[in-house]
Amino acid sequence: ISRLEGRITLGNNVNNFIDTDADGVILKSNSEYTFTKGANTYLKIKSTGLVGIGTITPSDTLTIYNDNNLLLGLDAPAGNDAQLRFYSAGSYKTIIYRPANSDDLRIGTVTGDALTIQQDKNVGIGTTTPTEKLEVDGNIIVGGNYIGRDGDNYIGFVSDNLIKFRVDGATQIKLADGVLAPQTDSDVDLGSDSTR
Q1: How many CB atoms lie under 10 A from the CB of residue 45?
Q2: Which of 27, 53, 79, 150 has its Cβ near the most Cβ atoms within 10 Å?
Q3: Helix %, strand %, coil % for the chain, to 5?
Q4: How confident is the model at residue 2 (pLDDT cuts 50, 70, 90)?
Q5: pTM of the full predicted structure?
Q6: Nearest to 47 by CA among 141, 84, 56
Q7: Does residue 101 carry a pLDDT above 70?
Q8: What is the rounded CA–CA span in Å between residue 36 and residue 158?
Q9: CB 49 within 8 A of CB 61
Q10: Parallel, antiparallel, or unpaired: how do β-strands 162-167 and 170-176 relate?
Q11: Could you give the CA distance from residue 165 to residue 122 in angstroms, rounded to a whole number?
């Protein structure tokens, strides 16, 4: 067993060295760090602090490249969260995570969970237990003009004072200026599933 004490200088530059302190090992370079195996470079740390995994030219704080599908895994025991946290100036702001003992994917903020996607593809906004494909706990404002199943069956917000209910390609009921009335080409019994 060999034991080396003191600073180990690398090459001809006294500023490139391996040393130790109370916290552990120090690897110092005035230039860049390159970790290779054979002809392949697996990790590059630029003098600017940019880090590349699988690339020698990182363009961001961390750049990851792979010639095939790029997979980034967050793995934790079933009883623990797997989390990806986002901070601003050192303060925790938002999170994407898999809760402990769950297969859900959740997006949250400092005030709690905002979006839940379950394994059965049910989506909850404001709720972590959606029972339908989309369940919203709270009010909804729609920026578009239509809500519906397809182009022939929808509720159309035509203007600020006109809403139309369209079925099978024809407008059946309209709400204009606060008055609910059948469209001129059909009469509809409110509370019934048939026209007359």
Answers
A1: 17
A2: 53
A3: 0, 45, 55
A4: low
A5: 0.68
A6: 56
A7: yes
A8: 63
A9: yes
A10: antiparallel
A11: 27
Q: Give the residue carrying structure tokens 């110092």.
A: 28
d(CA 175, CA 190): 13
Q: What is the pLDDT of residues 71-86, one digit of tens each?
A: 899 999 989 999 999 9
Q: Could you tell me which of 67, 110, 73 has the C-alpha nearest to residue 92? A: 110
Cβ neighbour number for residue 163 with a 10 Å cutoff:
15
What's the pLDDT tens digit per position in 112-147?
999 999 999 999 999 999 999 999 999 988 788 888
**Contact assessment for residue 17 and residue 7, using Cβ atoms and an 8 Å cutoff:** yes
CB atoms within 10 A of CB 166: 19
The token pair that represents 113 in the structure block: 């969970």
Q: What span, in angstroms and rounded, lies between the C-alpha atoms of 108 and 92?
A: 11
Question: Which two structure tokens, joined as six digits, stand for 166?
Answer: 């369209």
Confidence (pLDDT) at 184? 57
> 150: burial class by Cβ within 10 Å (0-12, 13-18, 19+)?
exposed
Q: Output the pLDDT for position 189.
A: 53
- Quote the tokens at residue 148: 């519906």
